[in-house]
Amino acid sequence: MKVSIKKDIDSGTAVEIHCREITPETERLARYIERFDERIIGSANGQAHTIALEQILYIESVDKKTFLYTTGSVYETDKRLYELEEMLDEKTFFRCSKSVIVNLNKITKLKPEVTRNILATLTNGEVVMISRRNVKALKTLIGLEG
Amino acid sequence: MEDTKKLLLYFRNSLAFSYSWLVVCTVLFSLAGGGVNLNTLLLVKILVLCAWGSACFVFSFFTRFMKKRGFIFDLTIFFVLFIPVEILMFYWMKIFEGTGTVILWVILGVFVLICYITCIVIDVVVMKKRAKVYTDKLLEYNAKKSAD
Q1: Which residues of chain A does B125 touch, with a Cβ-Cβ cutoff of 8 Å?
Q2: pLDDT tens figures, B40-94
Q3: Do B32 and B88 share a domain, yes or no?
Q4: Do B50 and B81 belong together in one domain?
Q5: 3-class SS at A98?
Q6: How far apart are the C-alpha atoms of A38 and B10, rounded to whole Å?
Q7: pTM
Q8: In the list A116, B33, B36, B134, which could disulfide-bond A110, CB 3.0-4.6 Å?
Q9: Does B67 touch chain A (CB under 8 A)?
Q10: What ipTM was predicted for this assembly?
């Protein structure tokens, strides 16, 4: 793959992919570029913040409000959980229960329970529960099944 | 609100399940010539025991506060809340024909301990191994994803 950088526009950055045909690899590349430096707007203490996706530990919906949890901070966002689920990379952000999406990159330990749920310990020590309904999807995603 | 509704639903289901089973067992025990005398008061006492058991069960295993603590912690809390009341209720219901004998109470204690120890053994031996496999696989998946 040939990569070239041209300084030919006045502001911002534009990326074009030139190819003979659109393959799954080119689509993946496009998705990767689109998600590069992608951020979500969240508010905390009445102030708006842009939060980089790699900072997010997990996203939780409580009483029809959506919260983004990062190490040490909690932000509220206007977006609904299903909107975020559609927007985020499904290989990194996993819907682990009806009300939680977890960042797989931030999980340090998985512990299956007798109840068939899985407890996921995050980098900040918090624990998120992967419900038994979503365990099969997780196993398939990480290559434990199928 | 949704959580409260769900908890009440779990409470209703566990109460219906435990009460029907306990009543069936008591009837069978009574028919088999056991010392239990079936009457309304006994049925009410069984209902109280089942209601307390169901409340402890729902609190220990389904509340948001307890969900993330792990199965053994939940089970311990359930036993701590339920077993003392169960002993008092058994005494009050005269399940062991009055105060019962030491052997009968020891049998009950051993039964509870066996249940508890079995759960701990399963958690430590089986689940610990699985936890390592799952964690390794996830870390491998994350590493592969980053490399791509």
Answers
A1: none
A2: 888 898 999 999 999 999 999 888 778 778 888 899 999 999 999 988 888 887 7
A3: yes
A4: yes
A5: coil
A6: 41
A7: 0.72
A8: B134
A9: yes
A10: 0.74
